[in-house]
Design brief:
The complex is a heterodimer of chains A (238) and B (102). With 238 residues, chain A is mainly alpha-helical. Chain A has 13 helices and one strand, in the order αααααβαααααααα. In chain B, helix 3 packs antiparallel against helix 4 (85-101). The chains are: A mainly alpha (238), B mainly alpha (102). Strand 1 (74-76) of chain A pairs antiparallel with strand 1 (2-4) of chain B, so a sheet runs across the interface.
Chain lengths: 238, 102
């Protein structure tokens, strides 16, 4: 049986440190992507300090790469910002899913913890909560790991980039995809959940093909959420 | 509007990107603070959390190359067999690398 929400919202230094350590293996792989970004950014002509500033301040890999594609001697500011928002809109939903536990924290801790939210540490936190364990240490501690390794990777790409010419040929572009899939497959599985995922998958594909670019994650997630409202949880599963 | 990326313009773009990203990280939590956490809201949130992952992965599987699809397949199988994510992820990445190498 799941513990009361109140016990799961704990956030203290041992939990943060445990979260930090738990994300080290995955973050090591993230270095390669930081390096790929650092290399691509330096080839775009951005100065080294600004490349590091982007990785430090934005900490959102997909949108950083997208900004590079739009970069030039003159950059279309609104297009870049709209693209960044669209790619990162899933963070809105991630924050919403964490709210049942974040709400017990004072605002400073609540928003401080969310500063470093990204796919990997959010997925691990949600998995911990579903197992009845505190997850916010994973969110903050794991976020610190991912963030610091992302910056180190970017720096490595700027200065040693030629050593990692093509992370895709090494399969490294699949790091996050494989990680997220392991989270899905390793989590709760029942008929209701499978039906919800089918709805989410179908909706995200339709959005991917027919709706504006980068909208598929938000559309798929909202469709899955609505399916969850419609497909009621059976009482005996509590 | 276009912005010169020599000098101060580039820094301005980066700072604005950071603010937009921060708005997405904080926005969901902020909005939810005005929504009462009823049973139905919890059901929606619970369903949505897994759906985010599925919504990221499905187009990736469809639009990726066979190396990507094989990587995801191997990851799923190894996760089910071993119940440990890290070996499954490494197996998936190795699969993609081998497929693309040969």
């Amino acid at each position: 049986m799941e513990q009361p929400d109140k016990e799961l919202h704990q956030l203290n230094w041992p939990l943060v440190w445990a979260g930090y350590k738990q994300l080290v293996p995955l973050s090591t792989l993230v270095i390669a992507f930081g390096a790929a970004f650092g290399l691509a950014a330096s080839q775009t002509g951005i100065s080294d300090p600004l490349i590091l500033a982007m990785s430090t301040l934005v900490f959102a890999g997909a949108s950083q790469f997208a900004a590079l594609e739009l970069w030039g001697p003159e950059a279309p500011l609104f297009t870049i910002l709209i693209t960044v928002f669209a790619i990162n809109a899933r963070h809105l939903l991630m924050g919403a899913t964490l709210y049942p536990w974040l709400r017990h924290l004072p605002p400073g801790k609540r928003y401080g913890t969310m500063l470093l939210a990204s796919d990997a540490n959010w997925a691990l936190a949600m998995q911990a909560f579903s197992r009845g364990q505190p997850g916010l240490g994973l969110l903050l501690g794991g976020g610190l790991t991912l963030w610091s390794f992302w910056i180190v990777g970017t720096w490595a790409g700027i200065y040693f980039g030629s050593a990692i010419q093509d992370p895709k040929s090494l399969g490294l572009d699949m790091v996050m995809g494989c990680f997220l899939l392991a989270m899905v497959v390793g989590g709760e599985k029942n008929l209701r959940m499978l039906l919800i995922w089918i709805v989410a998958a179908a909706a995200s594909l339709l959005a991917f093909w027919y709706l504006p670019e980068n909208s598929h994650v938000v559309v798929g997630a909202l469709a899955g959420g609505i399916a969850g409202l419609i497909i009621r949880e059976q009482k005996h599963e509590h | 509007m276009n912005i010169e990326t020599t000098g101060f313009g580039a820094l301005l773009i980066i700072l604005l990107m950071a603010l937009v990203t921060l708005a997405t990280r904080w926005g969901g939590v902020f909005v939810m603070s005005y929504v009462p956490i009823s049973y139905r809201v919890k059901q929606f949130i619970n369903a949505m959390s897994g759906s985010v992952l599925v919504a990221i992965l499905t187009p990736m599987a469809i639009s990726g190359d066979n190396g990507a699809r094989l990587a995801l397949l191997v990851t799923a199988v190894v996760t089910l067999l071993l119940k440990k994510p890290l070996p499954a992820i490494l197996a998936g990445i190795l699969t993609a690398a081998l497929w693309r190498y040969f």
